[in-house]
């Protein structure tokens, strides 16, 4: 018997009610709905399901872990966590990020990374340093602290009283650079804005700078020019500001490299990443830091508070198996290869579309920015709800696209399918996307 439509489905404004019903099964890039229709998951859910849905090996590893140990408080080391951390250090993390702390998701990881930066500054006698400089646009999570550090106006709305007002600098956005469309000095302008902000706030008040290596859904796979990260690194070092890089969406192969930072010349003091860590099979994220950050804390006997479910044995087993599959099937390289094919199809089908301002991305993380006027880059009015309309039209055509942007920055459609997506499925994805954009714009 098929489950009845779920009343909670109505909370998703972009899905035409009452058509929506829950997903009952998923395999590869396909979601099977209770009414028997199939939806091509062009976004891996929330850009998380990177090895494809329905991997029985992962389910078996999780079942074994939970059968063996159930829940174990993170104070104790379990074999599942030990194996995962060993794999992370051997094959995934940058060499200098030797310390691992586990949380249940990206928001918790971002929150912990911010607290770690503050704890470090206190431990080295810099108690006055508490500010976290963030960027606009960005998204780092839904806790009060991470909302405050992020630059996502729509998600911050109403919660401002709970959150301190952290300073913000622009994230490089070449298409709309105030210097001129696609101006080559946009990267330097934005790095300079960071230096100016550190100086105007007072370096002695700034604990860390927090940014995504490549802006995820809030900016639609927006990446900086080549001089940005080396210059940001230099500025952070000069003023004693820690560099925290968010790899929640870009990590674990999504951009065709293990982490987004590998495309640039940069060495974060603290990095955190979730989503692809378990390929979406279980809630888990990690905060990864250098010995230099942890040493002053260790001297004082300080440590980050653990999360009850951080490093849950079932989640660690899921992550260890998902990463093993990625290594065995060479899926990071496949993300790069399939990404190049996706790019070619997108440019061919949508490159000259009158309402497509830009198609941008890397690996299998792509953003398509829609505008009312391609020449002037004029936006559609917010009330037009173009992003949600495209997502709705996509569902009507059997594909799920991820709504990006921040409210102020719109309209952006994000793509992030599983790395296993076939050539035929890529073609289907782009056909359905083009149909949805044509219908909505
Ligand atoms: N950071 C980035 C870049 C993200 O994209 C997200 C979620 O989309 C988060 C942090 C928050 O992660 P979570 O939703 O797992 O709490």
UniProtKB/TrEMBL annotation:
Domain of life of the source: Bacteria
Keyword hit for ATP-binding: no
Keyword annotations of the record: Aminotransferase, Pyridoxal phosphate, Transferase
CDD domains: OAT_like
Cofactor(s) required for function per UniProt: pyridoxal 5'-phosphate
Keyword Transferase: yes
Single GO MF annotation: pyridoxal phosphate binding
UniProt xrefs under InterPro entries: Aminotrans_3, Aminotrans_3_PPA_site, PyrdxlP-dep_Trfase, PyrdxlP-dep_Trfase_major, PyrdxlP-dep_Trfase_small
Homology family: Belongs to the class-III pyridoxal-phosphate-dependent aminotransferase family.
Name assigned to this protein: Aminotransferase class III-fold pyridoxal phosphate-dependent enzyme
Organism: Pyruvatibacter mobilis
Highest classification ranks of the organism: Bacteria, Pseudomonadati, Pseudomonadota, Alphaproteobacteria, Hyphomicrobiales
């Amino acid at each position: 018997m098929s489950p009845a439509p779920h009343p909670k489905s109505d909370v998703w404004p972009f899905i035409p009610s009452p058509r929506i019903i829950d997903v009952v099964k998923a395999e590869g890039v396909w979601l099977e709905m209770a009414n028997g229709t199939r939806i091509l998951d062009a976004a891996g859910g929330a850009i998380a399901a990177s090895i494809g849905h329905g991997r029985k090996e992962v389910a078996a590893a999780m079942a074994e872990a939970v059968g063996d140990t159930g829940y174990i408080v993170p104070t104790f080391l379990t074999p599942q966590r030990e194996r995962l951390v060993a794999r992370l250090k051997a094959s995934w993390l940058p060499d200098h990020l030797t310390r691992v702390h586990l949380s249940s998701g990206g928001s918790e990881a971002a929150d912990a990374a911010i607290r770690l930066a503050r704890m470090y500054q206190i431990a080295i006698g810099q108690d006055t340093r508490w500010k976290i400089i963030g960027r606009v646009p960005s998204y780092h999570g839904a806790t009060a602290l991470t909302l405050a550090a992020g630059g996502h106006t729509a998600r911050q709305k109403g919660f401002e009283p709970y959150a301190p007002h952290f300073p913000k600098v622009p994230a490089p956005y070449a298409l709309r650079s105030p210097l001129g469309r696609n101006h080559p000095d946009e990267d330097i302008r934005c790095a300079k804005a960071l230096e100016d902000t550190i100086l105007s706030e007072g370096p002695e008040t700034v604990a860390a700078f927090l940014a995504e290596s490549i802006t995820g859904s809030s900016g639609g796979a927006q990446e900086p020019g080549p001089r940005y990260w080396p210059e940001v690194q230099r500025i952070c070092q000069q003023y004693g500001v820690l560099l925290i890089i968010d790899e929640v969406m870009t990590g674990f192969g999504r951009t065709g490299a293990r982490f987004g930072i590998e495309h640039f010349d940069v060495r974060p003091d603290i990095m955190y990443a979730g989503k692809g860590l378990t390929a979406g099979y279980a809630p888990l994220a990690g905060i990864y830091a250098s010995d230099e950050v942890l040493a002053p804390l260790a001297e004082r006997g300080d440590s980050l508070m653990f999360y009850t479910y951080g490093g849950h044995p079932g989640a660690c087993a899921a992550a260890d198996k998902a990463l093993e599959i990625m290594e065995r099937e060479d899926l990071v390289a496949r993300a790069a290869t399939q990404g190049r094919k996706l790019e070619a199809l997108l440019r061919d089908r949508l490159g000259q579309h009158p309402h497509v301002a830009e198609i941008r991305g890397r690996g299998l993380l792509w953003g398509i920015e829609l505008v009312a006027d391609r020449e002037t880059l004029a936006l559609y009015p917010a009330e037009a709800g173009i992003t949600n309309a495209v997502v709705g039209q996509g569902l009507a055509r059997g594909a799920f696209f991820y709504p990006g942007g921040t409210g102020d920055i719109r309209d952006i459609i994000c793509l992030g399918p599983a790395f296993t997506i076939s050539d035929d499925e890529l073609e289907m994805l782009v056909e359905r996307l083009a149909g949805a954009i044509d219908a909505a714009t």
